[in-house]
User: Fold this.
Amino acid sequence: MAPGSAEAELLGRAFLTRVVEPGDEVAGRWVREYGVSEVVRRLRRGGRGLPGVSGKRWAGLRARADRAEPGRDLAAARDAGVRFVVPGDTEWPRQLDDLGDARPLGLWVRGRPSLRMWALRSVALVGARACTEYGAHMAAGLAAGLAERGWVVVSGGAYGVDGAAHRGALGAGGATAAVLACGVDRPYPPGHTGLITRIAEQGLVVGELPPGDHPTPSRFVLRNRVIAALTRGTVVVEAALRSGSLVTARAAQRLGRHTMGVPGPATSGLSAGVHELLRGDAVLVTDAAEIVELVGDMGELAPDRRGPVLPTDLLDPRTRQVLAGLPARGAASADDVARRAQTTPDDAVARLYELRALGYVERHGDGWKLTRQPLIPDRQGRRGC
Assistant:
């Protein structure tokens, strides 16, 4: 097998996912400077180590390398319906290259859709594991709204906000992808086995770690950079001040992605982290339309937010001014109304008769007064209370 062949590159990168931890920038620099084949050769044969690590760490990497079997990992992946996507493949999402030396060595992907195509129109929805009912409701509603608009919802497959986001997208018949901190053939958390299996059947399950590998606290944190880089923006639904979802949001900010937050009660500790983001560069969002306005194409604008239209809103502005010139109690002469409305008495009288026809005012002797229950014309011109 030629050292520079595509198969050697695939085997080499699969080997490295078993040896080095996700997001290891030192190993990423080795790959960039020496190439995959040379890094693999040095790790397999020992001898002179690579720069940037201590002798103790190099020995640890060598011990891992002795146990790595990339051919076996790739075979196990194929048996589980998993493919290994590496930089340079047509399915590789190029936005992951923004991570520089922390870019994944490759991604293990479970599911039929193209990761690259899905990532082009995707949004991350993340938040607290121990979320409130409000947080779960908002996550599911936002995910469903995004899915209905043709956006892929990306999250981490965890309990709380992540799970609600995945379920919201699936419930709307839309697309969702879970980025795991373990082997994609080993659903985690165990309580989400059914959900992650369903995601794999209808969407995508993605991870940096080879088949069978287990999650660790540090791997959860490092996984978040992939969620941030893969998507066009990150929405944080609920997050305490030390929440891991804030790591995703800050990674998104460093990468120049949109960062959004859903506000919660000012008294809620689970929203304190979101509110801190909103005090910075994050944008407040409350529904899917507002998210799409930020991450979507030009012209995908959220509707203007307005209160209900009142019957008086339909009046001519000068007629409304005359109506406002009437006292709240008692009657007033046409001259008094004209003076308050800053118009002529003749104009005031004409508009008062118009308002009487609409049921807003009535004659009271020589004066005019507001009716207690103005009659509101309907669309057919009939009047009713």
About this structure: The two ends are 86 Å apart (CA to CA). The domain at 311-384 is CATH 1.10.10.10 (Arc Repressor Mutant, subunit A).
